[in-house]
Amino acid sequence: MPSTFQTHELSNGLTIIAETDPEALTASAGFFVGVGARDEPSELMGVSHFLEHMMFKGTEDIGAAELNQRYDAMGARNNAYTSHELTCFYASTIAAHARDSIDLTARMMRPALRTEDFETEKGVILEEIAMYNDNPFWVLYEQTCERHYGNSPLGHRVLGTEATIKSLTRDQMAGYFEARYAADTTTVALAGNVDFDAACRQVESLCGSWPRSATPRDRQAPTRSDRRLEIDDGRFGRGYLLALIGAPPAQSDDRYAAAIAAQILGGIDNSRLHWALVEPGIAEEAQADYQPHDGSGELLMFASGDPARLDEVERIMIGEAESLAESLTADDLDKVRSRYATSFTVGSERPADRMQRIGRRWAALGSYRSLEEELAQIEAVDADAVRRVLERYPMSPRTIGTLRPPASA
Question: Fewer CB atoms inside 10 A, N or C side of the chain?
Fold first, then answer.
């Protein structure tokens, strides 16, 4: 699908980027704010995600019901999400409604933050935290991350904790919003059948008065050392194992090789961990994933199964990771590259996916790569590149977390 990349920066620092395609039938717009759990003071942990919810409660002149009704009238597919690195608000519509979609989303980005809405939504957030506390993976993941990252805000929980959410006030949230939701921390990403020049004028009229940020992000990489966490929890009958190891940051082109290495090691199908742990029945599931962050990165490995066999699972998992460099084959690389090529290319046919791809990249790196350039980067990763990354980021130091029922259970 032909597309043209364009970019424009407002005088206040807000950036507008787009992959425009006049032949597309749809248009997508996303507001990517470079703020997430890692930007929160520890006592306000969870405020970014809570604030995401509050955006949908309306502005000073648009109530929550009207906001939802106006999106529905466009037939929009709209939503939002919060991570450690960013918060994104997005909407996709048919091309005829592109202007209305941009208008409504931009207005939504300046919420009323009404006290009554805040108190009501606090209960929703607490219910969400309780739901995740019933999921063994998330119980282990959040506590292992806290141990792994130490005092770094990268260890913050995106949802926060019951204690931090209960103590959070509406005025604290408003102060956080004013400090972080600024023009120069925001990227507006557009894709599909969009008139870029008209969209820039529209965003200028809606967002040109937004202030700049005075609160820089703490990008210091965490101090790593061998750490271990053991959780006994009688609510769960299976055993769970999580390992976190240092990996390339988002800014490094080594991330392509790291992502391919993680897929070979623990992709969902036909991976080293699958054949070493799942196929012989030693574990019920075993996966690996590369998680790039601003200034640092992690390799995550996860497995679950019989609690009595977790020590065996850990030994095999680490062994497979440590031997990956020497066991790597050209066929391994070809299969993973083909999967990436298929995934990226299928996504390129949907403006919504293209908007997410360019928006996340610009928010993280402040740069653009076309689909063809991304695929070329992936295709350029050979066995030597993967081995170099594995050598630069060995399996130690690492953090190991386990969760299992008490021995007496």
Answer: C
| Residue recorded with tokens 């101090």 | 223
Task: Kindly report the length of the chain.
Answer: 409
Yes or no: say if 320 and 154 are a contact pair by the CB < 8 Å rule: no
Residue 161: DSSP 8-state: -
Contact 299, 245 (CB under 8 A): yes
Per DSSP, the three-state class of 255 is helix
Query: Is residue 266 very low, low, confident or very high in pLDDT (cuts 50, 70, 90)?
Result: very high
Residue 2, pLDDT > 80, answer no
Beta strand pairing status for 87-94 and 77-82?
A: antiparallel
**Minimal CA–CA distance to 180: which of 153, 205, 203?**
153
Q: Is 128 helix (H, G, I), strand (E, B) or coil?
A: helix
User: In sequence order, what are the beta bridge partners of 286?
Assistant: 303
Give bridge partners of residue 8 from the DSSP assignment: 16
Identify any residues that bridge with 63 across adjacent strands, giving them in sequence order: 58
Q: Specify the DSSP class assigned to residue 221.
A: P
Which residues are CB-contacts of 36 (< 8 A; sequence separation ≥ 6)? 48, 82, 83, 84, 85, 86, 87, 158
Residue 305, phi-psi category: left (phi > 0), alpha (psi -120 to 50), beta (remainder): left
DSSP-derived secondary structure for 350-389: SHHHHHHHHHHHHHHHS----HHHHHHHHHT--HHHHHHH
Are 361 and 367 in contact by the 8 Å Cβ rule? The answer is: yes
Give CA separation, 169 vs 46, 113, 174, 228, in Å: 12, 11, 9, 35
Q: Could you give the CA distance from residue 102 to residue 196 in angstroms, rounded to a whole number?
A: 12
**Whose CA is closest to 225, among 310, 151, 291, 289?**
151
Percent of the chain residues topping a pLDDT of 90: 90
Q: 3-class SS at 337? A: helix
Q: Which residues pair with 190 in a beta bridge?
A: 18, 29
Question: Which of these ranges, 171-185, 338-352, 354-368, has the smallest mean pLDDT?
Answer: 338-352
Q: Give the DSSP H/E element, type plus range, for residue 33.
A: strand 26-33
d(CA 315, CA 276): 11
- Amino acid identity at 387: R
Return the beta strands (E) in 256-295 as ranges: 285-293
